[in-house]
Amino acid sequence: MLTIDINDQQHQVDVEADTPLLWVLRDVLHMTGTKFGCGKGLCGACTVHLNGKPVRSCSLPISAITTAKITTIEGVENNLSNASTAIAVKQAWITENVPQCGYCQSGQIMSAIALIGNNKSPNDEEINIAMSGNLCRCGTYKRIKSAIKTASNDVGEK
Amino acid sequence: MDVIDKPIIENVSRRSFLKGLGLASGSFVLATTLPFGHIAMADTAKHNALNVFITIHANNHIDIICHRSEMGQGVRTSIPQIIADELEADWSLVNVVQGMANNAYGSQNTDGSSSIRKAFLQLRQIGASARYMLRQAAANFWQVSIDECLALNHQVSHQITGKSLSYGQLAELASMMAPPSLDTLRLKDKSEFNYIGKKLASIDLPDIINGTTTFGQDIQIPNMLIASISRCPVIGGKVKSFDASLTRKIKGVKQVVEIGLTPGAVNFHPLAGVAVLATNTFSAIKGREQLEISWDYGKNLAHQSAEYLAKRQSLVQQPGKICRDEGDIGNAFKQHVKQVNAVYTVPYLAHAPMEPPAATAMFHSDGRCELWACTQSPQRARDTVAKALGLDKDQVLVNVTLLGGAFGRKAKADYLVEAAILAKAAGQPVKVVWSREDDIQNDYYHAISAQYYQGALDDNNQVQAWLSRTSFPPIASTFKKKAQSQGKFELAGGFADIPFDVRNIRCEHIDAPAFVRIGWLRSVANIHHGFAQSSFVDELAVAAGLDAKDFWFKLLGDNKNVALNRGGFKNGNYGASAKDHPINTDRYKEVIELACQHAGWGKEVPEGEGLGLAVHRSFLSYVAVISHVKVLNNHLQVKKMYCVADAGQIVNLDRVEAQMEGAMIFGMSIALMNNISIKDGQVEQSNFHDYPMTRMAQAPEIEVTIIESDGLPGGVGEPGVPPVMASITNAVYAATGRRIRDLPLNKQFSV
Ligand code: FES
Ligand code: FES
């Protein structure tokens, strides 16, 4: 049994120590907002926050995070440290009507929240660097970029 | 075959089956059978409980069925949007219900960019019928003429007394009305549209941003096992023997099941392999890695894509089978010595939707098999599963989840069959999870192709002769073993359907055997044909010393409708008539003109930069793209793309723009990076590191313009893709003088 902290809740899970966090979330805890896209850290669909930093949960063995705080798309708005950023980002996603199929979007949103949490007004270059680990096969990049700018303006004003 | 062309609309509010659906009495329920099916389907519909399209509840809420699959194109918003508009419903009270596989819905096959263009009128009729019946109900209640009853924004009012009743209040009364005759039904005038043509937010948006959607990969059923399958890497191969003793030692692994080879054409049969079933995905994957499998690869082990392509390149330079022949091409080439010729190639391409395929199956105690899957084609999936398991069609239930992208991949039902076979073998529910590697290596690939173009110009730089040849393994090979000849629909995809004002035209095609599973990928044969055609027009323009835009206009000739069938070629025109959807040169010119205006065509650009123009009609829509590229130290950057589309009457402007934005990125991935190569019958790529996609840092600025058009609705999901590739290579030529005829561009440039 391992104990992990997801969205400020303690969970006891009975899995092998090398099991990636992604599969614990999806198969054991049935939190399927975090998506499987490549399993190799190449697409960002599985992005969650580890102590506030964006990480690829498909490449993170569960044994490595027993002392960390994990935040997922399901809980990111309730996480005190970045709740206002999360709300602003999600609102901007609505304003720009960003998603197409939606599959990559929880990962995109988690990366965007981490970016803005760290840098209130990222420029194009900083957005490119922070977001290039997140693939969108539907090609919503233009709107993701606009939404990040909209959200950073909102956060900046507060 | 009797084809019905009108929906059959039935008031089923009083039917007993509704009790089973948990509907409160007093609801007004319209069922329908959409056309594009056989009369026989209408009969079954009468006995079918779930072909409900609209339900108006006493509490004012309205459920509208979406019978097509949502894969990012916005269909779960646009179909209800059409019905709600004609119904005069309040959009905030509309709830969308996903339709299960059911023949009454007509074709549910969500491909060919067909959902709106084929059903626009019928969906409007369904909404308008419901509105009429609500008005009739109110008229009866007030004992006045229906002509005095106006339906507006979810209520009917009597224009003389000012009395009004909400749709919810009228639901029970309307449930006793007969549907109106479709011949006399008045549809809204365009000026009266509330929702059609407007930007409505996608109905799934709130769930998507909160991570609460359900895709095929997300299905959870109690007592379910998860399967990871090691499939034979060579098509037609099978398992010789395997040893699973190490696999069985992995914690969580429950069963190991061999899947045999289905003889005959590849069809949607599962590939031969060994499945590892475990309590979680990671155990299944780990167990699979421990399998020792000895494969019998079969004959396709000999397939090498590089050699195959070289052979196609040489074959297209020799005569092939003629599919269109006008004038006397031989004579024209003798007379006009100013000639250009070129060979173009596009490699195999994989679909790689963001969500790898997944399907879940379980058997009910009465023997019925129920599935949940991200499928584009639930009816075909149901029939395929039934056949594979020896069940009746009505013993197979297919639930459609959201699709995390599809692009044609999820129209193939192989993964649903895998789930059903394994659920049966395991005796408990099974979810089959494809990994990214499975997806890249076991796809139904877009065909590898070579094309030859030859043109002759006269002294006025008028094209006097146009010869084109194409060779690629046809989609028919997937369904018929040894099929080698390209289908009419493939040849009509941007090849033999060219609209040019040229007296001597010949189009030829050359047989090509298939050694992998061939499928249809977003815009199908228009991908390679669009690339070659717009590249070759650019090459002719250069040879003529003319500006590409001027040359396109010259080649298109006068404004006119071009005959569909020319030179012996019967152009299927995507299933539409010449009357509804003529090939119109004016519409080509309009998208070119506007794209040129937006891009500032002809302007000076800095050294190392260039603009490239391409235009293509596919799925009845016209799209022009201009790309602006920069090449510095052999690094290629696409700076900006201008896209102008005429897709006829559109339903949701925002989603149409989004589809075009996405098509730019999709086409750019094909132009710059996508390449599936095959060595010894086996795909060499495996994941996004060696089958890369456009990423944020590469993504150009995109400017999309949708023409306000009075034409009937054309396709939207696919037509944006075909012009993209040549717009980029033509821009590369403008920037560097280097003509790239073989995709992808990363063989020549860093990208
Ligand atoms: S699934 Fe983790 S990065 Fe792709
Ligand atoms: S929205 Fe479909 S992959 Fe990004």
UniProtKB/TrEMBL annotation, chain A:
**Source species of the chain:** Shewanella electrodiphila
Q: Does the keyword Lipid metabolism apply?
A: no
Please give one Pfam family short name: Fer2
Keywords assigned by UniProt, alphabetized = 2Fe-2S, Iron, Iron-sulfur, Metal-binding, Oxidoreductase, Ubiquinone
Cross-referenced InterPro entries: 2Fe-2S-bd, 2Fe-2S-bd_dom_sf, 2Fe-2S_ferredoxin-like_sf, 2Fe-2S_ferredoxin-type, 2Fe2S_fd_BS, Beta-grasp_dom_sf, Diverse_Oxidoreductases
Does the UniProt entry include the keyword Transcription regulation? no
Give start and end of each 2Fe-2S ferredoxin-type domain: 1-76
Q: What is this protein called?
A: (2Fe-2S)-binding protein
TrEMBL record, chain B:
Q: Which InterPro entries match?
A: Ald_Oxase/Xan_DH_a/b, AldOxase/xan_DH_MoCoBD1, AldOxase/xan_DH_MoCoBD2, AldOxase/xan_DH_Mopterin-bd_sf, N-heterocyclic_Hydroxylase, OxRdtase_Mopterin-bd_su_IorB, TAT_signal, TAT_signal_bac_arc
What highest taxon heads this organism's lineage?
Bacteria
Hydrolase: present as a keyword of the record?
Answer: no
* Alphabetically ordered keywords of this record: Membrane, Signal, Transmembrane, Transmembrane helix
Q: Which SUPFAM superfamilies match?
A: Molybdenum cofactor-binding domain
Q: Please list every transmembrane segment annotated in the UniProt record, as residue ranges.
A: 21-41
Which residues are in the Aldehyde oxidase/xanthine dehydrogenase a/b hammerhead domain?
A: 210-299
The record's annotation in PROSITE patterns points to:
TAT
Instruction: Tell me the protein's name.
Output: Molybdopterin-dependent oxidoreductase
List the lineage, top down: Bacteria, Pseudomonadati, Pseudomonadota, Gammaproteobacteria, Alteromonadales
